Amino acid sequence: MDDLIIRPMTLADVPEAERVSDEGFFELDTRMRRVTGPEAQRRGDAHRAVWVERTRHFVRTDPGGCWVAEDGTGIVGIATSYRREVLWCLATYAVLPSRQGRGIGKPLMAAAMDHGRGCTRAMLSASSDPRAVRVYHQAGFELHPQMYLTGAVDRSAIPVLEKVREGSTSDIELMDSLDRGARGAGHGPDHELMLSTWRLLVSDTSTGSGYAYLNERGSLALLAASNRRTATRLLWAALAEGPELATVAHVTGANPWVLDVGFAARLELHQEGYLGLRGMKPPAPYVHNGALL
After folding, report:
1. How far apart (Å, rounded) are the C-alpha atoms in residues 204 and 162?
2. Which pTM does this prediction carry?
3. What is the predicted pLDDT for the residue at 34?
4. Are 135 and 106 contacting, i.e. CB atoms less than 8 angstroms apart?
5. What is the Cβ-side half-sphere exposure of residue 211, based on CA atoms within 13 angstroms?
6. Dihedral sign, CA of 188, 192, 197, 201?
7. CATH number, position 23
8. What are the pLDDT digits (tens) for 115-150?
9. 137-171 b/e with 16+ CB inside 10 Å = b?
10. pLDDT (average), residues 193-214
């Protein structure tokens, strides 16, 4: 530990940071795997490219929120975070499995959280790892259980969908307004990142507005709306446009309308991880993203 340093992450660090993250989450998935769950897998090339591009984005927009722990062997821990208006978000936090329990994570977390000084709200999406959850609780986060829905979509249950269109960069102002209504802050430059790789669906009518991003696999990545009716319409549209085997992740108890749609589509409900919040209630109607929240 004497040679450990905590320093800002650079763009050149990102590939090595990805390796640390991959090793950490692979070990976690292996350790926390349910008996009936799928085998843990390392990131594929496509997923790795997405992680790298997203992390480079955070280093560019928030160099003060991205940190590495380094010793004589190289990078052994990482934390990336960012500020959007009054909201601070933790995107990634990982320590190499072989170096966990040696006091590396605490100073990393402190460095990242210092970037959020002055922010009145904070969000993070946590796994079920007891050690990480303890760190977040000690940092003052309220932990709200997350659920996810998965399975083959019953296509016969999909209603007739109207008032949903393809979105574009011209919708960023509308989306930031919806973000502020749901979580107190717009996504700002993150919308440009998401638009560059994801598909955007928008519903904007006299009775309500909302948007939904579908990720590179066609699954729901993020959804925000001004009311439940619009949110429900967009979630059905996401399921209709998505793969046969659907996953709707990061569902909180504040959004029961997601369960209404999921059960109607014959998806199965499971629980995994926590949404950590400070200074705010769980966003609704909203389905957050794990890193871009």
Report:
1. 11
2. 0.94
3. 66
4. yes
5. 25
6. positive
7. 3.40.630.30
8. 999 999 999 999 888 888 998 999 999 999 999 999
9. eebebeebebbbbebebeeeeeeeeeebeebeeeb
10. 97
